[in-house]
Amino acid sequence: MMPFFPHFGELGSAGIHLLLVIGLACLLPSVVDPTRVWHRAVLMAISAVLAVRYAWWRATETLAPAGLTIDMAASWSLFALEMLVLAGSLSSFLIMARFRDRRAEADAHWGWWGDAPPPRLAILIATYNEELAVLERTIVGARSLRHPNKVVMVLDDGRRDWLRDFCAKQGVEYLRRPDNKGSKAGNINHALERLAESDVPPDFVAVLDADFVPHLGFASRCLALFHDPEVGLVQTPQHFFNADPIQHNLGLTRSYPDEQRFFFDHMQPARDGWGIAFCCGTSSVARWDALQEIGGFPTESVTEDFMLTLALQEKGWKTAYLAEPLTEGLAPEGLKEYVTQRARWCLGLMQIARSSLGPFARNGLRLRDRWSVVDSVFYWTTTFPFRLAAIVYPLLYWFFNVTVVDAALSDVISYFGTYFLWIIVALNVLSRGMIVPILSDVSQLLGAAAISRAAFTGLLRPKGHPFSVTAKGGDRSRIVIQWRLMAPFIILLVLTLAGLLAGIFSDRFAFSDAGDGKWVILFWTLYNVVVLSFTIIACIELPRRERHVADVPERATFQAGEIESRPWITSLTADTVRLRGRAMPLGTAGTLQIDGVGKIPARVIARYEDGVRLHLSPDQQQHEALMLRFYTQDDLAPGVARVRGPALIADLARRLSFNSGGR
Question: Is there a contact between 235 and 278 (Cβ–Cβ < 8 Å)?
């Protein structure tokens, strides 16, 4: 007689755990509301339980025996680093258990000043070496904000006469100082000093980076949250009208979000639920009285924004986060700039941790503010070194027969596989599908060495580091291979493949005494081969062209002599337009009428099967109207907000075939 319940072996039982998580992955999106705190808390509590379960298993069953051996040194060092990462993950799970959406609050308190004159807003645009094409759209966007009582000030630490003349033509104020002391924070503080000397100082101060264009409603939406007299600063998310280097170089512009979307769209609202959202520099508005009370922007760190939040919190001021697309800027276009920016953020956070506003310093910060800093320190000091370790440690087995994780395959599936898969499911449910493990690993690995170096340099020697400006603009019209960045990944890939092949074809490597654990190392190695391969491809920088990803097709009117047509606009830039409809001879001249811009002189420069491309010759007023159209429209967020699965697979396949089409 057969038993009623089938008997599963150890491997089959472990597989049941994974099947359970997969089943829940199909069910959870239909029952979980990411905006409900108790739903989030349950998901994150399960994540924490599985993390602790995994940590206990690692500590009790997978480590090499104690002794003065290489096996123990490798096994225990990896375990220690992994547990530090896990501690940071537990902190993140707790943060993600809450959520706050202030959009309804902004609706309810819009124009809270009533019949009184609108508050005076000073808009500060800090610049150092950006070119006119970058600065122009920011200045035009700031000048065009709907808020009536405002002053726009361009703070030029590059001391450029041409920029002074341009500001005069635009009707905005221009300010320079004799030195660059204090970098960006010092530049802003210099402007605050001049504003304090004016007859009518502002009520609020907005800060924009030189490449961030405000939407028309930026000021009014941010000011709405200052109805609460305790709010000292309002931060809004950063969106980008261009693809970041990872999106672009892997050909994922249309299918994969930029690297910061998870932080701005999901982590910051979660932090706001705890009251620990922080300033991110650009796209923020601060109360004048609050800035005066703390003496302006702190200068102890190269990331003055996070430190500004701590300085405000110490004096009892709140930071509010408004999760609306209210500005859009230029993401780093090159990998070197991308890595430099992240390393600067890391260095600045380490400087804060060692400053007078650090988590263990004697100051007036709340316990949750100290936790906020510690959480960030854990992220920067553990995530990136662990990403490097995950690549290097399997090599110890293939070349030196050092087993860093001594575990049966069934246990790895049950403890690690279940935990890892659940985390991916839970975070994708809360973020509405934004987490792709391999691509996340690629983004971390690209900057891992520089960021790890910055982390420990900042902790050990926090002072004396120069402010590194992220370069923007420039020529991106050709393929550039970042050989210096790519070389370590090529070496690691060659070593990984060599170790794998040596273990397969030679008995002198990968001895059999690892037992079942050899399967663990094998899977780990194959995963690393994939991650390293994509990382190397990401180091090949593809040409870029101007693209406005928020554009949608629309009708226009093209007039050429007596002939008038109504084609569809399918692609529009500042000086070219692609039309679908009637084909016309090369050189045909006429005018193209676009809603909100007017009649622009145009000439046919290319023919296609379904239409033509025109060269546009707008006057200055039309040129500015085009910029406002591209970058300042309310309720439009450029880029991709979530992963588009089928499109992602197709894009990766296209990129691997090296037929990216210039995407």
Answer: yes
Do 191 and 313 lie in one domain? The reply is yes
Q: Are residues 537 and 395 in the same domain?
A: yes
| 144-170 pLDDT, tens digit each | 999 999 999 999 999 999 999 999 999
Are 506 and 454 in the same domain?
Answer: yes
Cα angle 445-449-450, degrees, rounded to a multiple of 5: 110
Output the six-digit token pair for 503. 């273990």
Where a domain ends, among 484, 510, 541? Answer: 541
Q: Sign of the CA dihedral 519, 521, 522, 526? A: positive
* DSSP reduced 3-state for 235: strand
Model confidence pLDDT, tens digit, residues 411-444: 888 999 999 999 999 999 999 888 899 999 999 9
Token pair, residue 192, equals 């605050």
A 10 A CB-CB count for 104 gives 8
Distance from C-alpha of 43 to C-alpha of 562, rounded to nearest angstrom: 66
The reported pTM is 0.91
Domain membership flag for residue 349: no
Q: If DSSP codes are grouped into helix, strand and coil, which group holds residue 552?
A: coil
- Give the domain extent around 145: 102-331
Name the residue among 360, 352, 404 with its Cα closest to residue 380.
352
Q: At what angle do helices 335-353 and 483-505 cross, to 10 degrees?
A: 90
